[in-house]
Amino acid sequence: MTQPTTDASAGPSGGFPAEFKDAVSTRAFLLVLGVLALQLAFITSYIGAFHHPAPSRIPLAVTAPAEQVAARAAQRLDALPGGPLDARTVPDETAALARIGDRDVDGALIIDPSGKTDRLLVASGAGASLSQALAEVVGRAEAAQGREVRIVDVAPAAAGDARGLSSFYLVVGWCVGGYLCAAVLAISAGARPANLARAVIRLGALLLYSIAAGLLGTVIAGPILGALPGNVMALWGLGTLVVFAVGAITLAFQGVAGVVGIGLAILLVVVLGNPSAGGAYAYPLLPPFWSAIGPALPPGAGTYAARSITYFRGNDAGPPTLVLSAWAVLGAAVTLISAVLHRGKGGPAVGSGAPTGPAARTSGP
User: Fold this and answer.
1) pTM of the model
2) Are 191 and 258 in contact (CB under 8 A)?
3) Taking a C-beta distance cutoff of 8 angstroms, is the pair 119, 77 a contact?
């Protein structure tokens, strides 16, 4: 008689409970639990940042032909309930325009004591939500004094830049490209580079990708779609820096935590970074937590710098560029250090199903 044969690939033979136990490992369960936590953090962060925007200490210049008139008006605006404005006097309208152009203030009230109508200078290129909030607050304050206000947009958003959001969307796209590029390297060649040379190769590949992504994103947003009229070379450089910084951060997290590092990068850039970036709502309209962390994270630094390049001749783009540079240097350094500390422990490509023995630890760039 022919003896029955057992197919070793058929899996455990204990029915559905055994199949379930074999298929759902503790590691898989913890990873799914982590994804759930990340999803809930995403919901909490975005709704928490955007559900109730309110102006807080919006920088406003105030000027009038008589210094005493400007000082009294600034004091009155500065004392509004809730502190929506941070008013300060400037010598004249020329100085007020210069302060707006340098991004020292977000608007300026030009008082005309000889009439009943004053002018409010705003800059919608810095975000339509900000200029609208400023117009609303100052308009109410002026109405309470029996005066009217005429809005003058001195740095308007381009015709193709709806509500001044194109800079934010461009930076978000650059950020997505940065962490996806780093994640693809993990998926294809192991979460950690096998040695220092492989880490250098990954960073080099990321740099080449960043240069291409920065240029193509700038060309699409600028010459092709006409959304951002800023200097192409400056935006290209910014895009390269944003993509590389986010990618390097992701590589660093992967070097420290393996595949979990991808989730940590998403937590930092997407969950915390995007809602605090000052895109949909500028920093003075966000709750304190988000307005505090936004300038220190890549999406916020990139968005502010992109708007400065596009509408303010690059003024005040230096600090956010330094923030991005710091993230890029830190990410690259941690990536290289992790490669040295975990030498020979790169592991298989994420999702490959390959074993994690010594033979697998030397594969992949």
Assistant:
1) 0.88
2) yes
3) no
